[in-house]
């Protein structure tokens, strides 16, 4: 697996203050940085694959946060207000900045964020080859058959990275792939252009709600494989069923340390119990992000989900 560990500096440093850049330059070049957390009045924090690093020599100021925000929006908040309403901005290179602050709500809908008090810069983890060991379990190159697959993992355990690489590999194998990238994490689009490699035959709907996006792709782009991340809402599950009925394969993910935990969410429980997924992959961080803990058939996963449901009812 190839990962250019230092690329994030070239991509992200143009959006940081001099003080922040100087502190981050002191990190070893090989440090696997995953997140850079800026909170007003508190120390600069870095989350890496080796744990949390507190850069206590730097206290992030409110003025510094505002300067970072202005750099990220090219000094025009209104130009990117649609993204800011959703609490994040896409950055070149596939990286993403999330925001915390005071929400302005009208009619139950968030109109904008004000008084930004925190910024979390998530460093894109493009690991080419992350899906290679899984591919033979999910794809038959002779028949071009792709198993309907659900990838489960807790947060930051590599499910998006693995899903992205599977999309790249399947696209490279000659299949038409459609990605619905609701939060701009899978393809990391900036200005509509994928910043991360997702394959030569891949079409991306960026910033589009999953359920609506899956239907749009099926109707307009005739994908053989539809890829999306982090199922959870009832409408997402309905759309997955529609995609499967259309004849396209589904590759998707959800939060969960195992099938039983995922089946605790009613929408996912229905899909799992019905055996609609032909493969369920469970990942962890035990030996680093993307550690494969299990690859099971849809029947095995259905039995676990049904057992969990019965235990919940009797409990």
Topology:
Elements lengths: L6 H6 L5 H8 L7 E7 L3 E6 L2 E9 L2 H11 L8 H5 L2 E3 L5 E11 L2 E14 L12 H4 E2 L4 E2 L2 E5 L5 H14 L4 E5 L20 E5 L3 H11 L4 E4 L5 H13 L2 E7 L3 H4 L3 H8 L5 E6 L6 E7 H17 L1
Parallel strand pairs: 9-13, 9-14, 10-11, 10-12, 12-13
Antiparallel strand pairs: 1-2, 1-6, 2-3, 4-5, 5-6, 7-8, 14-15
Helix pairs in contact: 7-8
Please provide a written account of the structure:
The chain has 315 residues and is of the alpha/beta class. It has two domains: 116 residues, 2-Layer Sandwich (Beta-Lactamase); 180 residues, Rossmann fold, CATH 3.40.50.300. Helix content is 32%, strand content 30%. The strands form three sheets. A seven-stranded mixed β-sheet has the order 11-10-12-13-9-14-15, sandwiched between helices. The longest helix is centred in the C-terminal third of the chain and has 17 residues. The chain is globular and about 55 Å long.
Into which percent range does the helicity of residues fall? Answer: 25-40%
End-to-end Cα distance: 45 Å
What is the general shape? globular
Please trace the helix and strand order, writing H or E for each element: HHEEEHHEEEHEEEHEEHEHEHHEEH
Q: Which stretches are low in confidence, meaning pLDDT under 50 for 5 or more residues running?
A: none
Please sum up the structure shown.
With 315 residues, the chain is an alpha/beta fold. The chain contains eleven helices and 15 strands.
Core attributes:
315 residues; alpha/beta; Beta-Lactamase; Rossmann fold; 2 domains; 7-stranded mixed sheet; 15 strands
